[in-house]
Write a structure and sequence with these properties.
By secondary structure, the chain is mainly α. The chain contains six helices and no strands.
């Protein structure tokens, strides 16, 4: 039972919830900032999973290895699950901290667009079920997403990172720990997807 990815995933989700609930408060936002921490970790894990999917896809195409194609597909699905589920977390963070939804925020518009497009691509790839096409599509998707995010204006996402530039090493350590837990959850989802393909 302890070796089951599903059981491990449930444990990780419980730890994520616990770590979120005990997160440090912020002077202006108070305890509500905790959902901002979770939202940040969630979207970063989604991006990293999608990037790993693209890299695995490129490696699979170059090396002609079926296992890399399989991991590209699994990581692509995991990344899209986390990308899509990050959207309600983002809306929750807006509502609790700024008392309203700013759906016209540029990064939010890009996020919604790529959630819809990404979901349709993953469904289409699952129906076609061609490893080479899947790997190529995943590599192209993350490339276009990364380019689009680099070109969009930041309104509610001011660069550079307020957390990593805060000088508060406890806060930085906390946020890194939360990121690692969410990233591990994304890996476990990918493992489940990989096992399901066999």
């Amino acid at each position: 039972m302890f070796k089951s990815p599903i059981f491990q995933l449930l444990i990780i989700f419980a730890l994520i919830i616990l770590l979120t609930l005990i997160g440090p408060e912020e002077k202006s936002l108070g305890a509500n900032v905790r959902i901002v921490y979770l939202h940040g970790a969630w979207v970063l894990s989604a991006l990293l999973a999608l990037a790993a999917s693209g890299l695995a896809g490129i490696a699979g195409l170059l090396l002609r290895r079926a296992d890399l194609h399989r991991w590209s597909q699994a990581l692509g699905r995991s990344g899209m699950i986390f990308w899509i589920t990050y959207l309600p977390l983002s809306l929750w963070a807006m509502q609790t901290n700024w008392n309203g939804l700013f759906l016209a925020e540029p990064r939010m518009s890009v996020a919604f667009t790529f959630a819809v497009v990404g979901l349709l691509i993953q469904v289409g790839l699952a129906v076609i079920n061609h490893p080479l096409l899947t790997s190529a599509a995943n590599a192209v998707f993350i490339a276009i997403l990364t380019f689009s995010l680099s070109r969009v204006d930041s309104v509610m996402h001011p660069p550079p990172s307020p957390i990593f530039n805060s000088g508060n090493y406890f806060l930085i350590g906390y946020f890194l720990s939360l990121n690692l837990l969410v990233l591990f959850a994304a890996y476990l989802v990918a493992r489940l997807a990989s096992n399901w393909q066999r």
